[in-house]
Amino acid sequence: MKKIILLVFFSSSLFSQISNKKIENWISKNNELDGSVVSIAVKRIDKDKKIIGSGIDIYMTPASNVKIFTVLGSIYYGDSIPIINYKAYGDTLKISPTGYPLLSHPKYRDKDLEKFLKKFKYIEYHIPKIELDKYGPGWAWDDYNNYYQAERAEMPIYGNVIQVVKKSNGDIEITPDKYKIVFNFEQKKQIDRSEIENNFSLNPSLFESGDTIYSPFITSRKNTISLLENALGIKVEFKMEELKDYNVLNSSQVDDVYSAILKDSDNLISESITANISFRLNDTISVDKGVKLIKRLSKQIELFDGSGLSRYNLVTPKSIISSLHDIYNLVGFDRIKKIFPKNYIIQDKEDFVWGRTGTLKNNHNYSGYLITDKNRIYIFSIMINHFTNDLSKITEAIVDFLIYLKSNS
């Protein structure tokens, strides 16, 4: 019955413009949204008109929609990501970290950085200015074993996780191979780590050939330096003094970083770039200071991290529209299409929507850019919080709205 009601609603509105009333009617007629808090904001990008929608000033839990603000902050504050500070003396390289997260990363490896570091026989690792907690406020304490909650660090390496691969011959390959690993054929998880030590247990019987699993390790400066020696095959010595009169090496793969944040929703990379934003302006690796800089760019946001893991985060759909518009003005639509994922869960349609989802239990959001049948570009934010229905029903409702907006604007 719901599909019939929606089809009739779409057909009757096919040749009329989107409006506050029509969005409110769409929400009220969609039974899948009963009992949830729904806020929707829409704006045509080339028109100096007010944002339309329903509940556009309601504070909502954004989850990974926070990453939109993080990417805007990185673009706004230079759109150039410093990798390391350095000074070279013959065969010795003095470095100081910046929070940059791609060194020997298992998914997004920065080979240019590794190539640069391997030119030298000795590395001196100088202490950085840092104000950084390993976890953000409002993060789940018992998620330490999951890839999505890898620890923040001044110089992430290997993505701050171990990678476990079961090869076709049955061998288990572990990178980095630096920690105590035991096999436990009785445990119910593929991989488990001690809460307070870098001791891991695996159940090989739960791995299929070709499986790749990640688990965060506990970070420390001593651990980072040891892993840096492991990754580069170079002696690394720690220096307590700060590096002075340095050069800055900038990333050559800025859009790859943004894609990792927006397309793959990588939380550690998003947190690291937030800390890196602080470094650019304050010379200090700090998520908290990075968040304060990001908050300057938008009204109606309460942020506590750079990834959206924190349930303390609150934003309005209006603030997301404003940030998406700023990104559009700064980088243009062609670059947006490169760094944002496309078409949500929609199958068998040409590309028409690019956006970022945000999901925590009982909360799901989708915000981004949409091209209508009349070739107009709209910015939108659909935020659905506190639902008790199946997530699949919520995503179906969002698809309905996206197609409705595409046809009616």
Structural summary, described in words:
This protein has 409 residues and is of the alpha+beta class. It folds into 2 domains: 2-60 and 316-407; 82-251, no CATH class. 30% of the residues lie in helices and 23% in strands. The chain has 11 helices and 18 strands. The chain has helices at residues 2-12, 20-29, 66-76, 111-117, 221-232, 254-262, 267-282, 287-295, 317-331, 333-339, 391-407; strands spanning 37-44, 52-54, 82-89, 92-97, 122-126, 161-166, 172-175, 180-183, 191-193, 199-202, 212-216, 235-239, 247-250, 301-302, 314-315, 353-360, 363-371, 377-385. The strands form 5 sheets. The protein has a 5-stranded antiparallel sheet, sandwiched between helices. A 5-stranded mixed sheet has the order 12-5-4-3-13, covered by helices on one side. Strands 7-6-11 form a 3-stranded antiparallel sheet, with no helix packed on it. Helix 3 (66-76) runs parallel beside helix 7 (267-282) and helix 3 crosses helix 8. The two termini are 26 Å apart.
Topology diagram in text:
Layout: H1 2-12, H2 20-29, E1 37-44, E2 52-54, H3 66-76, E3 82-89, E4 92-97, H4 111-117, E5 122-126, E6 161-166, E7 172-175, E8 180-183, E9 191-193, E10 199-202, E11 212-216, H5 221-232, E12 235-239, E13 247-250, H6 254-262, H7 267-282, H8 287-295, E14 301-302, E15 314-315, H9 317-331, H10 333-339, E16 353-360, E17 363-371, E18 377-385, H11 391-407
Parallel strand pairs: 4-5, 5-12, 8-10
Antiparallel strand pairs: 1-2, 1-18, 3-4, 3-13, 6-7, 6-11, 9-10, 14-15, 16-17, 17-18
Helix pairs in contact: 3-7, 3-8, 3-9, 7-8
